[in-house]
Amino acid sequence: MRGLLLKDFCVLRKQMKLVAIFVVFYAVWSIAAKTPSMMGTMVILLSIMMPITSMSYDESGQWYRYAFSLPVSRRTLVLSKYVLGFLMALGGLVVSAVGNLAILALTGWENTLESWIAIAAFVEIGVIFLSVIIPLMFKFGVEKGRIVIIIIAVIPSLLVVLLSNLLPSSGIPLPSEEFIRAALFSSPLFVLAVFLISFRISVGICRKKEY
Amino acid sequence: MDEILQVKNLCKKYDGFALDHVSFTLPRGCIMGFIGENGAGKSTTIKAILNLVRRDQGEILIFGQDNIQKELEIKERIGVVFDSLNLPETLRAQEVGNMMKSIYHQWDQPLFAKYLEQFDLPMKKTIKDYSRGMKMKLAIAVALSHNAQLLLLDEATSGLDPIVRDEILDILLEFIQDDSHGVLFSSHITGDLEKIADYVTFIHKGQIYFSEPKDLLLEKYGILKCTESELAALPSNAVRGIRRHQFGVEALVEKRALSSRHVTDKASIEDMMLFIARGEHR
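The joint structure predicted for all components is written out below.
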């Protein structure tokens, strides 16, 4: 497990250096564009992409057949990808939180709740995204997985558009502030549960697969 | 326990291809050459041994244990080299060592360093900058640095120049000096096998044609050059494959089934492969 993560970090070395440059770039842009949360959200987006990048490297280098010739169980390999995803999300969260504070300190802008909610929501959406995409990548491979992802991404977006068109005229009341507050605090648990379920599914997929 | 690897009645069905009751046994202290044309089932067999593909039927015992029930224990003690080095190209040999240290319980870092030096593999260069021969040698160094007893090589020498191939063969011969070790070595470069193999197993269209000691095979088969009428007069159990030329007929024959008046030429492993896979049969 440690060996697998070590390998992933070595593979992602270049990408992580790139992200470090992006952090500075987006920080400057955030200040120039007067949107404090922009840098944070971009950093999170980039770190969430890391496990996917590592999986596409794995696939193109035929890593899996080699990894499973070593004393590495299918469960351990899958676990290593979820741990990588978790570490990246956590890393993204920390960097963007520190970045946000730094931007606020530099500019003297008001410390708003919105910017923190934006960062938290981005991490949660990112983790949900990983929960959907990792099993698909194990099942279909990176290339085919991508197509499936696009199809899957289209359905919820259509639903959202449809709902937002229907809601005002349908008479369904918009959620109350209390509801939103409750959702905000309970959502990390929900996200974590989704992540764990996704892990179980991936293990099942990987065990059945032939390499 | 004399056998290091036993494959018994292995079956695996795909669309348009099947391993059909593949059986062979590799004794300890031996190198087995596993030959067959591309698509004959060599890699599928090796993948089934490694449990990378599920078998439909049959049994595979490594060190006398079932390859699926004791999968991880077994994999601690085998070294695998595929036709390419499947490690990420951005890694350096040093990092490969660090990584393997936490994967294999018995990883021997000083031994790995010794092999890197012996094979002239720079520690600090990324794998990307290695030549193909260097990459394969790195794969072999990894396979040899954790006290493996069984080596599985799947086309590990294909695409390499004769010098590197020869070096690799020497490494295998050195490995087999310990007679508790064993090597299964798939290749279609039959010359390599003729140099080092103790046993030769020939697979063709998913079926094992023979799995025998190499010396016995070389003794058993011969090539008979004759005319059509002479060929027709041969006992049918003697002929294993026929090839027709402009000037006559050549047949791969079992020498002991012929009378002493027939003079045969030596048949190489490659001849056996060609006659059986491409020749006519009766």
